Amino acid sequence: MESDPTSSPKDDRNSFSSSNQDIELRTMLNSTVNLDLETYCSSSIENVSLNNPKYIESNNDSSTSSNNNKPKNQVRSLSQENSPFNKYNPSVDELSEYNPILFNDSKISSEETQMIINDISKSLRESDSESLNTSLELHEFNDGNSEIIFGNDGAFISNNNSPNRQIYPEVLEETSEKEILIEVIPVLIFCIFGSIAAGYIFNRIRTLKSFTDIPGLYMMVPMLLNLKGNIETNLATRLATLANTGYFAIKIRRDAEIKASLTLMLLQALIVSITTGILVALLVPVIALDDTVPSHMSWKSQSLILVFTSILSTLVGSTVIGVLATTIVLVCLRFGVDSDNVSAPIVASFGDMLTLALISMFSSFALIVPEIIIFIVVILFFVSGVILYRYASNQPLIVPYLYQGYGPLIYAFVTSSVSGVLLEKYIPSYSMLAGLSPIFNGSGGNVSTIFASRLSTSLHAGNVRPSKQSKTFMLLLLANFPVQVLFILFCSIFIFAKIKGWPIILFSISYVTASTLHVSVLLFVGSISAKIVWKHKKDPDFYVNPIISGTCDMLGTMLLVLVFAISVNKNVVEVP
């Protein structure tokens, strides 16, 4: 885009950056990359002197594409050097095929380039210097046909042909203490009542004919809630990270990232659902040994319905939750709300309710459908899984994460199973343990998930400071306290109404104290695991949530049993 010689430089700059005057570059240095694809592919980048060459790697080997003999120069995503976003470096040809509008033959004039540099420098000088981990480094590559500006804290490719193009991604300003509390506390309260609703739904569906005829559904419910819930929470935190680090600033990049994230989640959901269904089906004979009234259905029929129910409820539920998570993040971005504080807890809470409803619906439906129809549907899903995997393995934005995060999912599954064993052992002694455990564990998990999501965003943005993490730690502990007190008051009025005096006081104090300890440990676990994962160049969004979830269930159940044990007597936890 050539400048109008009759206009001043100031007017030119305002023509493309006036809409961004309120954006403070606090976590990312932003730039514009404009490429003539043919010129770039044929140019020798090896001869270009860059003080910070980590952003471009040249691969002038003998490999050539099928269409031309030009070397494929490897282009690295211009974010933090150790970011997992940079693990896979697609070639220019791959990027242009995947997202062709990012590469165009328009150019930036030298005058406009200097305006961009001046504008970025001014914004950085005016911003809080503590918010930047690194100093300003700008590098310019100009071969006469294209110009590239590199910043060491990140950059973005923008489309010059757009009349309202954005030079900078919109990075949300650092949230104040008051804003964090205002955003977090209502979400935590909403999620507690979501957990209560999930428990109510589960108590209702336990009497369905499908659960009576197929006891394996009892085992499948907690497994799916855990594994499916972690996958959906991973999606929510990943989308929040992408939004808060500027990847959603440009519409075409935003759409590509959302599409890739949803595709990856559906693939993982399909893998998890098939694995869960088959595993529970194999355990049906073992489950039948403890049945006082044996099921009249054969093992083959039960297994087929279990796999069918697992796949369908997971895929339908994950699709709905994926749309919900995307909507929440985009709405938060639109209204200036930090999606790290909102998306993951809501997704987890609503996901549990939806999964329980879908399991009951599809299992009941399977009882009235001919087995041959169920078998055909299951086979079609297996084939769809293979097709989806082949598609995902060819997408540059999915490949780096295709095999990430399964280890923590296994950890979460094992530790949650330990929690289930503890519940089975102590529920006969403490009748309300079954009702309070999902709420106690869920609220602790929601608080720690918010912390992990915020920390992941900070790591990707290169803006991790001990003072900031300590502040977030204390604020989330503070946010948890009134939520737990409110819940105890609710229980005292509607559940423990006939219990007066010291017993209920002791139980309430013990409950709130245990909740505070629970959240504190989970916050430490989230902080340590996120930094360890990041150090090994993995994306925390795929690892930390399952680790927190598994630790949360096991530790929370232990603490809740302890709360009941130290209460004055067992009558405290009996339903009046």
TrEMBL record:
The keyword Transport applies. Residues 1-23, 52-91 are annotated as: Disordered. It is found in: Membrane. Residues 70-89 have a biased composition (Polar residues). It is a multi-pass membrane protein. Its main location: membrane. Keywords: Ion transport, Magnesium, Membrane, Transmembrane, Transmembrane helix, Transport. It comes from the Eukaryota. Residues 221-360, 438-562 form the SLC41A/MgtE integral membrane domain. The keyword Transmembrane applies. One of its GO terms (cellular component) is plasma membrane. The chain crosses the membrane at residues 180-202, 262-284, 304-333, 345-366, 372-389, 401-423, 473-496, 502-530, 542-566. GO terms for molecular function: monoatomic cation transmembrane transporter activity. Residues 58-69 have a biased composition (Low complexity). Pfam families: MgtE (PF01769). Coiled coil: none annotated. Belongs to the SLC41A transporter family. This is SLC41A/MgtE integral membrane domain-containing protein.
